[in-house]
Design goal:
Strand content: under 5%
Oligomer: single chain
Helix content: 40-55%
Distance between the termini: 45 Å
Structural class: mainly alpha
Strand order of the largest sheet: 1-2
Protein name: DUF1800 domain-containing protein
Radius of gyration: 25 Å
Pfam families: DUF1800
InterPro entries: DUF1800
Largest sheet: 2 strands, antiparallel
Number of strands: 4
Number of helices: 29
Length: about 650
């Protein structure tokens, strides 16, 4: 066998078997055809677009205010410098380990002296590759962050008890004893006034309990509009097939609307934990949003696999996924027959969707699984089992064995194997590791992962039970400042903080009568997320987007985020309603310092330190102080002040 492993999920670019067909390499393709290479392979990682790369002056920072970016007025460069000073520390705030980003702000990229020796030792002793997140954290970044991450913790009867007993020891700019803010930041796409109010009113335990039962939470206005105006979302395959020509003429595509639906839910839903879990599983059990042949079935995968089971049992999700045409086509399973084996789905079922790469299986197991899964196929965009194409004979895969004696019974054997592997202890640990990386820390404590994995096994893959174990341990509550928002999370958090509404403002007009203003606005946001390289489900490779911050380090992306925040603040997303920046605070204080405190408390739920407050005030005027009298427009600088607040590390950190 001649198989070489690729840690980014594309483990088939060298043929493993002469009779294998359908091997592919999507590495060169990014969302909608943009290019990408992982950061540790000489590329920029999931970041597909860097606006700084095309700047004519050679400076690293694009448009940081509404003035001409090439204007040489000192005030403009002063504002840009201030913005960098305000936001440039975000990378280091999870432990000083994100060395890769500091080069963009004029600092060294490598440790020196004893730190360098310690880093080298850590690299040498690093564990074997497990998944992309851990692989990315095995170098200098991981070393720094590990120093700032709790190494152990305790379990309590309820999340509220765990929060009460937690002691935050890590260095962070965030408040160390504000469990409401911490919970709202970690379990939602961004806290807003309603989320904070709901947690305060219901209590930590009551709010979590309600979020675990999303069906009890009413749909918001934005969700109702998404259901009504994203017209393909609820259509069956037969309906989409019958109406495809008419929809195409109107520029309406089901796979495209599926991405917009996810964005709408993240922005507007009150069922935030559920939407967070949908997004998690869109990465964990990833099927690319845009894949040839899946145009009419990818949304069904989202409805019938991911959303149906996001707060259920993972074993049921995994079995359902392996019966869905979107996954089967994505990984070429329909090409696998008893006479010509294709390993793609069998390999990813082990490598990405259950036990994790190199975690207890070998190439013989992959081969056996691929043989067992033959017969699973697609007919007219529907799952079908074809017994005449099923391999018959004994199989043994990671302790699962079966005589597999006849073709007619092959489907039942396959599903027994799927359930076995989805409930395997190695799957439990891999799932726990990934959940803890998403919600707790880029290098989650082993004690927490062990506890979550045990619950996964004991509760037969019940996801709410695993989440409750996580939330009832002190490691979760002590991880303040240990997660940085990925680009898409930054955008949704900003829009949610501004409480942008789903309805178009009065007088809005559009030349496109085929789709509503809201759908047009979601399209604009989708394109912005594609610039960030982080639109929902759009990564073309099977591994899904990485969770760790070092995979997303880019000055261009950060500045692009700040500029998009300014667009939102000033109502640039014309298809949505927004509050004018001078009206964000009712009856604003009459002095600059007090007004800034009120704004930062409303937008990012913190009061900033004096150094950052001074830097922000100087964006408005170099002579402005905390006692300077201001009007509701902050003497004309309110939009710049709000954007600067969103540029602080406090907002970049979850």
């Amino acid at each position: 066998m001649n198989e070489r492993y690729d840690p980014y999920g594309d483990s088939y670019y060298e043929s493993g078997y002469e009779d294998q067909t359908g091997r592919y390499d999507r590495r060169s393709a990014g969302p909608r055809g943009t290019g990408s290479m992982p950061a540790d392979r000489g590329g920029s990682g999931p970041h597909f677009y860097d606006p700084s790369a095309s700047r004519g002056r050679g400076g690293p920072l694009p448009d940081l205010d509404e003035d001409d970016e090439y204007d040489d007025e000192p005030s403009n460069w002063r504002r840009r410098a201030a913005m960098v000073a305000i936001g440039g520390g975000a990378a280091a705030l999870i432990g000083g380990g994100a060395y890769a980003v500091t080069q963009f702000f004029g600092k060294g990229t490598q440790p020196e002296g004893a730190a360098a020796a310690e880093s080298a030792a850590a690299d040498t002793a690093a564990p074997a590759y497990v998944d992309q997140n851990q692989s990315l954290m095995n170098g200098n970044a991981g070393l720094g962050i590990r120093k700032n991450t709790p190494t152990s913790g305790s379990s309590f009867g309820t999340p509220a008890d765990a929060a009460k007993n937690a002691v935050v020891k890590a260095n962070t700019v965030l408040p160390k004893k504000d469990p409401v803010r911490h919970l709202a930041s970690r379990l939602t796409f961004g806290p807003n006034a309603k989320v904070v109010s709901d947690i305060t009113k219901l209590g930590i335990n009551g709010w979590i309990d309600k979020q675990m039962k999303p069906e009890t939470i009413p749909l918001t206005r934005g969700e109702q509009k998404a259901d009504a105006e994203l017209v393909t979302w609820a259509m069956t395959y037969d309906q989409l097939k019958a109406q495809r020509d008419d929809l195409d003429k109107k520029g309406i595509h089901a796979d495209d609307q599926n991405v917009k639906y996810a964005i709408a839910k993240q922005l507007f839903s009150d069922r935030q934990l559920f939407e967070m879990m949908v997004d998690f599983f869109d990465d964990y059990l990833h099927v690319a949003a845009f894949h040839d042949g899946n145009e009419l079935v990818r949304a069904s995968f989202e409805r019938d696999v991911i959303r149906k089971h996001a707060l259920g049992n993972y074993v049921d999700m995994f079995v359902a996924a392996n019966r869905h045409p979107a996954l089967l086509r994505y990984l070429d399973q329909q090409e696998s027959t008893k006479d010509q084996i294709n390993e793609n789905l069998a390999r990813e079922n082990l490598e990405l969707y259950t036990v994790g790469a190199f975690n207890g299986y070998n190439e013989a197991d992959v081969r056996q699984a691929a043989m067992l899964q033959t017969g699973r196929s697609i007919r007219d965009n529907q799952y079908v089992y074809r017994p005449e194409q099923h391999y018959v004979g004994p199989v043994k895969i990671m302790g699962f064995s079966h005589p597999n004696g006849d073709a007619a019974g092959g489907e039942a054997v396959q599903e027994a194997y799927f359930r076995y592997i989805a409930l395997h202890p190695n799957t439990a640990r891999y799932m726990a590791q990934n959940l803890a990386t998403r919600f707790v820390s880029d290098v989650p404590p082993k004690t927490l992962v062990d506890a979550m994995a045990k619950t996964y096994v004991d509760k037969k893959s019940n996801i709410p039970a695993v989440l409750m174990t996580m939330l009832s341990r002190t490691e979760f509550w002590e991880s303040v400042g240990q997660k940085v928002r990925r680009p898409g999370e930054y955008l949704t958090a900003t829009y949610r903080a501004l409480e942008i509404g789903a309805d178009a403002p009065a007088g809005f007009t559009s030349n496109n009568t085929n789709v509503s203003p809201m759908v047009q606005g979601l399209g604009d946001i989708m394109r912005k997320l594609e610039e960030f390289g982080h639109a929902p489900m759009e990564l073309p490779t099977p591994n899904g987007y990485p969770d760790v911050y070092v995979a997303w380090t880019s000055a261009g992306t950060m500045v692009n985020q700040w500029n998009d925040a300014y667009t939102a603040i000033t109502g640039g997303r014309r298809q949505f309603t927004w509050t004018k920046p001078e009206a964000l605070i009712a009856n604003p204080p009459a002095t600059a310092g007090a007004y800034l405190d009120a704004l930062s408390k409303k937008l990012i739920n913190v009061t900033l330190d004096n150094d950052r407050k001074t830097a922000i005030l100087h964006i408005v005027s170099p002579t402005m102080t905390a006692t300077t009298p201001v009007d509701a427009t902050f003497n004309g600088g309110i939009a710049a002040v709000a954007r600067a607040i969103f540029a602080t590390p406090h907002h970049h950190l979850r």
